[in-house]
Structure formats: C-alpha cells, structure tokens
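[step 3/7] fold_predict: job queued, chain A
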Amino acid sequence: MIFFLVCHDPLGKAFIEAMRHSYQQAINELIVVDVLPNHTPEQVCNLVHTAWIENNSPKTIIAFTDIIGATPSNGLHLWLSKGMVYYRGFSGVNIPILLSAINHKDHNIEMIVDKIKYAAQYGTEQL
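[step 4/7] structure written:
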C-alpha cells in the first residue's frame, strides 16, 4: 500500500524523520506533500498529482492530512475527487496512526483502515 501525507510544511518532513527514527530506514511507502503557506488548493492538487505519477500511479492509496478545511486538505480532496484512485482518507494524522499504517502496509486496504482506526482511537491517552 502507498500512503500519501498532505499537510502543512514542515509537518510532513517531521513525520518522515520520526518514522525513519522508529524504523532505522527510509519509508518508501509514505509519500509526503508539504504545503507552503502561499499554496492554493489547485497548486496542492497539482503537487499531489505529480507525486502520484512519480510513484508509479498506484490505483489504491490511503491519504492522510492534518486538518480538514485547510489548504492541504482542500487540495488533496480536489485531487481525490478526480476519481483516478480508489482511496480511504483520514484527517488528524499522528505518529501512532502512521506507525500502524506502515506496520500493516502489506494487508488489504480494509484491514489497514481498521488498524488505523484502532490507532486513532487508542493511540493517544491522557497523561
């Protein structure tokens, strides 16, 4: 499975670095599109499309974004609405969700989604 992470810069880079630290290697299945403050949804849509093509145009993806309604989310949704991929999407991305996704990357999409939902529900606790 290929995962797209579309979020405000530098959040995506920070997530990639945290994932590399956990796995001690590059995470090739996690494609990051960091969105700058001056990007428009249309520009984000184009960046996602370019990243999709550069990664062999997978037919199925899981997409993550940081905040619903913000430019990264709006641009991602604009691209997803073109219907080029079968996808499942999540907002409010965090490290437990990403770790779960990568840990289960070889399973079918529905199982990965179930694992992500579990991580979203139980991956954070009150201290």
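[step 5/7] annotate
The beta strands are 2-8, 30-35, 60-65, 86-91.
The helical segments are 11-23, 41-54, 71-80, 95-103, 109-122.
exit 0
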